[in-house]
Design a protein that fits this description.
Length: 766
Amino acid sequence: MHGPYHPGMRFPFLAALALVGLWACHATPTGMPAARVRDLPGNATPADQVVAAARDQIERGLGKDAWRQLDAVLARDPHHMQALRLRQDVLRERGRRGRLQHEADAALRARPESSDALYLHGRIVRDRSAKLQSFQRASELAPDSAWPWLGLAHTLRQSDPERAEAIYTRLFHASAAHPLVAIAYAALLRENRKSDAALAVYGSLAKDSASAGAAALGRAQIAIANDQRSKAWSALLLALRSRPYDPGVQALVLGFLEAGCNDDQAAQLLDALREDPRRLQEFSAGDGLSVLSPLLLRGGQIQSLRTALVAAKVDARRPAMRRVQRRLELMVGEVWSFLGMLQADIPRELVAAEPNRLRARWLALLDGPWFAIDPTAPQMRSWNRSLAADLTAALRDVGMLHEAELLAESALHEFPGDARCLALRDEVRTEIAFEAGVRRLLYQGYQERDGADLTTVLQRLRELSQRVFGRCVVGSPPLFSAPLVGEMADPFAGPLAEHFDRYNKHFVLGRRAGGTAEGLLLARLSLAELPESSDLALPARCFEVVGVDRDVKSLGGVLGGDLAGVALLNHFLIDHDAVREWAASIADRRRVAAEDDLALAADPLPAAPGMDPFDVAWRLALLSPVQDTALDAAVLDMIRHHERQHLVDSFYYLPVESNLWRSLGLLFEFAFSPSAIEAEMERRAELASLVVSPHTELVLAHIADFLQEPTANSPHHQGFGTLGRELTEALVAAGVAAETAVPSRWHLVPRATVQKVARQLLGQLP
């Protein structure tokens, strides 16, 4: 169904629903909801209406005070289940899951046979078996209550999808197709690729104005999965008008833009937002701004985008959006505004450091004569011809090629035909084309899972170079290879490295054994030789590269995962954009806690938390003495030590042929499992960061964040999980009370004690 319900659809719609839940008319099966269920939310009372309004605020990103409204409802009606559920959701997102678990445990002790208490406990407890146990018992005690069945079905979605679907089917009919049940039910059907059944369920929501947008989004997602773009389009427009704030809607809009929608379709998307000023504002809030940006640029709405960026208070901790904002200033000829942003955004303490081999390039830009000009003086509003070319060259020399192109065009508007500006513009344009070609070449390999070796990939790059420059800038870079590990081109030697050095770029090209060739390309902020360290000694000269504006991403970065740093042979590479985003997340936690009057710091915690970290990462963020303004430097320091330990381990175990017994010992210890070995390397690297970095609280918070998902299988999750258990055991051995040594109470352990036991663990590494 792709339009509003009308009588002509009645028979097929009802027939489809009948097929979905034919057996629901029979007697109640064992372990299934009653034929009629109760308790689902409505708008019958003033309290219901307050809760519904709070939910709407939360969905729109305006619910920072919603939990206070919910507490007011619960003061009058302590058993209002929708208020209790929503309060759990809000406080969990605000770093207060420990308090919620404490409350749920206390309620269950007081009323062990209460279906409501069991249900709320199941919602907040993390352990899956405990969830199932609570939901199952609650459903036995109150088979006519919808809530425990919803919790049970949701928990079973991955492990037992058939039973989950059977419960949802029964609930759908037993609740008379209540929207809350219908949306969850249709989502499961969609996940299980039962498109027709899911569409029939979404059809039941057509006349419910509050749920029509969610149903339209679901229909659009089904159509996209079935490669039915025209059907997806009409559903997307409806969802966009109903739920512009929904991340799912925003993701679909971005998907259409990236897949190549035509100009009229892009205009339709923009017009759907223009129809209502509130709609445009809600779409651009939060992460939606990164979707609105290409849409407005495509529609030629540069001034609108400038306004949106200012309204969102974009700063350097939103690096992608800040880069767009700086470039927009050049597009409209606001060179002085661009320079002001640039001076504020470049981390001067990093680029101006004496060890930085790029120091002169950056200071030539940041201390150039253009900053001595008063742009408000009438006689200085015009460009000096030589100054414009010098600034363009300075931008080129630090790797800001798109900015150099824009500035050159601005200068040529004022000085038509200027030979130097023309030459600079054409040079950076050609280099932009080459780098874009490198990106497309690698991304095509990612898409096709191409197993070509580096020799073949380098030949493709030579052909690209000949086409773009008319000559080869690639040459034959030295290649490093390690049996069972992979191969990599030397990013510091050879013609290609020299070519990228001219434009202040660092290019990494490598391939894991049997994998696809991957690359990274960043503009460099800093290139420095690593200083000596007694804690993390290295047997040879190694380097640190700090970059920004990553134009080519590794395979993991394109397909989902990403990195803040990576160690490679004789250097490590840090993405400073990721550093800033990480720092922003810490500052965000502090901001949210302050909005709640720092109540988090005094929240009670469960009596027996086990290895669950609960909200300790939030508490440690508050405890850290690092000021918000210094968080970027602190995060950079943490990553530096983590990546340096990776280099230490690399020299210890590689090359395999020179360290055969060490390497064999590692392989046998971890049963020849590459993922287990990688997890061990992450454990060691984060342990080193905990020992060497002075920011103990922030490193502990980073470890705790990975403990939140004990079943996740990434090397970081597994390695940090092992490290968390080791820290707890070592703290107990050092005399810390067992109830204080667990992760959820790390904020109570003195910093000196943590550093002492961490150093002991580091000393045990081979």
